[in-house]
Design goal:
Elements (H helix, E strand, L loop, with lengths): L1 H5 L4 E8 L5 H15 L4 E8 L5 E4 L1 H4 L5 H4 L2 H4 L1 E2 L3 H11 L2 E4 L10 H8 L9 H8 L1 H10 L7 E5 L5 H10 L8 E6 L9 E4 H14 L5 E6 L5 E9 L8 E3 L3 E5 L7 H4 L5 H5 L5 E4 L6 H17 L5 E9 L15 E2 L2 E9 L9 H8 L4 H14 L25 H5 L4 E8 L5 H15 L5 E8 L22 E4 L2 H4 L4 H11 L2 H22 L16 E4 H10 L3 E4 L1
Parallel strand pairs: 1-2, 1-5, 17-18, 17-21
Antiparallel strand pairs: 2-3, 3-4, 6-9, 7-8, 7-9, 10-11, 10-12, 10-14, 12-13, 14-16, 15-16, 18-19, 19-20
Length: 574
Amino acid sequence: MAKEARGGRVLRVGLICGGPSAERGISLNSARSVLDHIQGDDLLVRCYYIDRNLNAYAISSAQVYSNTPADFDFKLESLAQGFGSLSEFGEHLVGNVDIVFPAIHGRFGEDGGIQEVLEKYNVPFVGTGSRACRQAFDKYDASLEMSKQGFITVPSFLLQGSEVNESELSNWFVTNKLDPNSGKVVVKPTRAGSSIGVTVAYGVIDSLKKAKGIMLEGIDDRVVVELFLEGGSEFTAIVLDVGSGFDCHPVVLLPTEVELQFQGSVDVREKDAIFNYRRKYLPTQQVAYHTPPRFPIVVINSIREGASLLFQRLGLCDFARIDGWFLPSSTHVFSSSETKYGSTEWGTILFTDINLISGMEQTSFLFQQASKVGFSHSNILRTIIGHACSRFPNLASYNSVSSHLPGRSSGSKPTEALNKREGIRKVFVIFGGDTSERQVSLMSGTNVWLNLQAFDDIEVTPCLLAPSIDCSSGMDANIMDPDSSSRVVWSLPYSLVLRHTTEEVLAVCIEAIEPDRAAFTSHLRNQVVNDLVEGLKKHSWFTGFDIADELPMRHSINEWIKLAKENQATVFIA
């Protein structure tokens, strides 16, 4: 393999998706994004799929573009190359790929399952090894290890199979100053990713009922009961290893604060709101993201430092996503933890979930946070692959992974280099509006924008047609101005396009141009970029950042049309 790579052969990447968990559809979306953004003249992607029963298949790229696994599951035996066993699959990979990029979320993807198969056949792969995966993926085991490593953790109680002891759980409630009849807790499977089967319960009886429900659904036979963190703010942070080989040097990107938003009067269901599967992956106005978080800078620095330390202590590799909570005022529950990591003058930081294979949909946290510090989709994925190659002697000399990036614009303004080139056609992609199809418009526009960026002779600018009444104007949204000239269009930088709804895009535009917020973000971004450069400058395969994170520009629709004319831009209406 090393000879072939050095001799100019393309790097063969095996992209594996699917799996037995409820997140297999998300896995397919992640695989589609990876395929879109890494394939090129220097890199050949071969696609593989694991079904619910752990049968492996070689599939075509066309099948990766199916809407859901159900669209092609029933056709696999007739249309795909099947393997008689995982051993046969492993043997196939040895001769047909140079490195594997696992894109399986949840069971078999993040619990060490696929990694164990790859290790058995000495197939290089992206990400953490099987042993560290097993420990980090299990929420209860990971919590025990984090506590052992000196981190503050959320008090928890393990329920396993038929070993349910009601009196022991009651004692745990009392110990943690919770009413056994009504104390509020979170009940979740220990081995089902961060979004599946998570629910709120009140008291011992309700907790046992919810736990049994998780077990009966077949999600997991190990369930953990945790304190409900009242008054806390959830955050998530991408960690990128920029060290050399096995010399771990993790850098935490700009974390994201996850804010749940309640509409109108707050009922019991909204009081019990958690960041679940629906809020994470589907268009909704029930959640807002803030990158960086609206926390004190000392807290953000502590989150970055702690996540980096945790990445090292748990033996993680290449990249991961670490979720947690910031509690502005510590409660009695954590008063004995003042000497552990996470105790600050502003409150308590807790790390709760380790995601070994972060979601890689087009608008996922990985791409949101990476683009904020200078990485396009292609660049961050190729950087991850490049780092993984450096850990394997046969691939360490392969140094062209991130030097073959497709042509792309840096956002709403062309780069200096792009300005000097002739024959560049400008395209404005506009999406959004008022109709019930505005979220579909956002998805369509995002896809058009990302795909057009692959062409060297096109400079593409994404643009949002804001609702009829601009939220930033403070006007009554019920007063509709029939004059279309009052409409507002925003020219968007790369990172602000990557949202689930047009409302989110508009909100982050307004937030981004607030002077204090802009200065705060710029300061933190520079910190992260400096940390990244310190590690990445040692790698010959890293050729630099390709995204400039600029501020969004607000135009009246007439100003925007004039701008399009002045630039002789083609307008793509999405």
